[in-house]
Amino acid sequence: MSDLVIPSDLLPLDGRFGCGPSKIRKEQLEHLISFGDTILGTSHRQPGVKDLVGRVRAGLGELFTIPAGYEVVLGNGGSTAFWDAAAFGLIEKRSQHLVFGEFGGKFAKAAAAPWLETPDVIKADTGSRSEFVPTPGIDVYAWPQNETSTGVMAPVTRVVADEGALTVIDATSAAGGIDFDASQADVYYFAPQKNFASDGGIWFALFSPAAIARVERIAASGRYIPEFLSLKNAIDNSRLNQTLNTPAVATLLLMENQIDWMNASGGLTWAAARTRESSSVLYDWATGIDYATPFVVNPEHRSQVVVTIDFDDAIDASKISKALRANGVLDTEPYRKLGRNQLRIATFTAIDPADVRQLVASIEYVTGRLGN
Ligand SMILES: *Cc1c(COP(=O)(O)O)cnc(C)c1O
Question: Where is the Aminotransferase class V domain positioned along the sequence (predicted)?
């Protein structure tokens, strides 16, 4: 099995289908090289890097058509660090979390901090999703726009509840691949290693004026907040195109090129159409054959950027991903803790729909030869 050779005319041109880190386009690497000797290896307190941060912030503002008063904020540590920063500096007393997979659950865990009230956690079985419940006393409503561990997507719709309650969206794997209305979220945070096809380690967030006011109020309240996790500090630094400590400059350069590519190609509507095309190829295929089926039963919950496909018990999906890997088609394994007989495939914006069609051809080729 492991020495199965997939004919080259069936293989994708680029074999990277992982959900993060994910495929980086050749043009991004060329961008990195062409600025390598003027920006890489220079001080992040000087105009070269500061201007780069400014271009990335402006490019994101354009891509997401942010409403007046919204600000693009960044900080070090990736989305995981943002959860802790939010526990310290965004949640006033109590948050509500929709948990329908690993990532939503991780934020709920970070919000179970001793200085806050026990979070209200609304769970759904993996493969479906839960809905928010406006509740007195809740000041942050949080859920992932795309649950990367299961391939379930959820709408971004502001929760109308207590006055001043904030809608906080984990868009780590959704941002740049799914269209939405930025005015519907108070905080829309993400990291660069998914649709932005860059490296990890930084978080970005769109903050509404209400969210900025919340951060400022909590920062002035006397609550203990470690400096590295201070959102107030991140907002103040971002306004100067700075970060508290040294950012990954190569990550910013890779991201700049991806944002420019998206904006020049037609923006978020274009990107969303592209990921919808790629994911439809997989869903239509899995729906049409008898040995596999989309894991997410409700078509409205199915993600357009992370596709999960269950296989019949008679077929061992891990053998498929192993054979694909041996042929240079990488990271189609399911989320490790989900433990299903499944393939998980990213259809992020960088991934070419033509390559997704080739991937299907490769999977069919391998499946037809399993056990032979
Ligand atoms: C990848 C991912 C994260 C974690 O991002 P890091 O930058 O690695 O911390 C969080 N949430 C979602 C939905 C993700 O897909």
Answer: 139-329
